[in-house]
Amino acid sequence: MIQTGRPLTRILGLGFGLAMVFGGTVGVGILRLPGTLAAALGDSRLIVLFWILGGVYSLLGAVAVAELAAMMPEAGGFYVYVRRAFGNGPGFVVGWSDWVNQIASLAYGALTAATFMGTLWPAAAVNPRALAVAIIGGFTVLHWTGLRIGSTATRIISLSVGLMLMVLVVGCFLTTPVAASGAPPPAMSAVSLPLMSLGMLAAVVTALRAVFLTYDGWYSPIYMAEESTQPTLTMPRAIIGGTVLVAAMYVIINIAILRVLPLPVLAASQLPAADAARVVLPRGGAELVTVISLMTVLSLINAIMLMTPRILLAIGRDGFFTQKAAQVSAGGTPRVALAITSLGAATLIMSGTFEEIVAVAAVLFLLIYISTYAALIVLRRREPATPRPYRAFGFPFTTVIVLAGCLALWIAAIMEDWHSAVFAGILLIACVPVYAWIAHRRRRRLGEPVAVKVAPPNPT
């Protein structure tokens, strides 16, 4: 690790960590996907069960990553763990893959936010790409001022989203429930198909993938572990506690929507939360869900704008990118890394090709998950004496379960979109000469055949 200037600021506590999990996870998916699951499964009990299974699976992943985050409380997220377990080369690939995935998500989120703004204020829909870039610019200015303001905004936005979702849920429970429908379940749903048939399995896989993707984001605090006041305590509590909180909310939201929408209506709905809101609030319900959708996307953008520059900071600090990316302002912001991240997202928005990049990044990100869970297994065997303030519950069985699940999802993603998988493979192969060139320059700059290591920051 190459020492560079001012360190990151340690001011973040458990409240911020929980807000990051919430803001980085809860998105428009939970407002849309109950309808997808109703069409795929065809049974209200199965819908709730699958959301519970998704929460349990995410919790198993959370306990694995919580061990790594408490063991290595450094900025940079997954890059740090993979580099420690497998070396500079795999770490380089994971770090840059993670950064590309995050800026693609940032571009997608900004355009989605622009769409919702256009629904609420038609004048904003005139130039959605320009509006999306302006949204990126606004959050860049917010986080440019310093970590304290950015962390406060995270808490406020996450709390606002949570309260609005609870308003919708309470309204659903106060409304007279719908009578049981006598209509048969959708023809291609799991309950309508022969047990263990290919069609039934395909419906189940579709539902599981949708649920797992909606839970993605529970790891958000790990990128900022170095800025936590007590990372060895806070990281496990934030990651695990936040995952449990999100899972509980997802299950409650689905139960609430199922209470006011008949299953056939839910299965045909493109935005079930809006249809439920129309039942609860005949006047203004749709607008409420649009506002909630907008706020969830803004919350996600805010979280990504905090996380992603820390990836570049860690890569630059280790000598695999410009060291200017590791420079930290007096307010605690890696401004060069923030500017590069914002510029990258704005470029994707204006290029009009980010949809393809999102598809490729999704394949790469499953590899990041796989590499991280494998890193935990490797480090347990290779470094048994290393202090671990938190140990993953049920290791190695729980870690093997999530590792196997990610492998299955990765194979399914390749089979579904082989074109994006091939392009992702080309990008990974292209990393080899790039890494070799950067590593050569790094060795020459350090004047030694291997990297100079410096003890990581004191986590307490």
Walkthrough of the structure:
With 460 residues, the protein is an all-alpha fold. The chain has 16 helices and no strands. The longest helix has 33 residues, at 88-120.
List the helices and strands and how they pair.
Layout: H1 14-25, H2 29-41, H3 44-71, H4 78-86, H5 88-120, H6 128-144, H7 147-174, H8 198-215, H9 231-260, H10 263-268, H11 272-280, H12 285-317, H13 335-351, H14 354-382, H15 397-416, H16 418-446
Helix pairs in contact: 1-7, 1-9, 1-12, 2-8, 3-8, 3-9, 3-15, 4-5, 4-14, 5-6, 5-12, 5-13, 5-14, 6-12, 6-13, 7-9, 7-11, 7-12, 11-12, 12-13, 14-15, 14-16, 15-16
Output mean pLDDT: 88
Number of strands: 0
**Helical proportion?**
over 70%
The backbone outline, from C-alpha atoms, is globular
Number of helices: 16
Fraction of residues in β-strands? under 5%
How does the major sheet shape up? none
Unreliably modeled segments:
449-455
